[in-house]
Amino acid sequence: MTKEEVIETVNAFLVEDFDLDKNSITPESTITTDLGIDSLDIIDIIVSVKEKFGFKLEKDELIGVKTLADLYELIYSHVK
């Protein structure tokens, strides 16, 4: 899977599962501040990643994830 495919897949589930405007999603978007994703939503992201990519992110892996670019990189590091 390419990095572009990771980005497209993540953006698609963010729009679908969190009712986000696709135009508001950029790599620089902060997950909590810009996108309004809270700690309970993080659990949903973990579930979505498992469903879409076939592996489970651990909560401690997400500690340093602040922006969507960070999330893309984390997921890509598992699938490449």
Task: Characterise this structure.
The chain is mainly alpha-helical and 80 residues long. Helix content is 54%, strand content 0%. The protein is built from three helices and no strands. Helix 1 crosses helix 2. The N and C termini lie close together (6 Å). The mean pLDDT is 94.
- List segments where confidence is low: pLDDT < 50 over at least 5 consecutive residues: none
Number of strands: 0
Q: Count of DSSP helices?
A: 3
Tell me the series of helices and strands, N- to C-terminal: HHH
Overall radius of gyration: 11 Å
Structure at a glance:
By secondary structure, the protein is mostly helical. It has 3 helices and no strands.
Which short descriptors sum up this protein?
single chain; 80 residues; mainly alpha; 3 helices; 0% strand; globular
Task: Spell out the blueprint of helices and strands.
Layout: H1 3-18, H2 39-53, H3 68-79
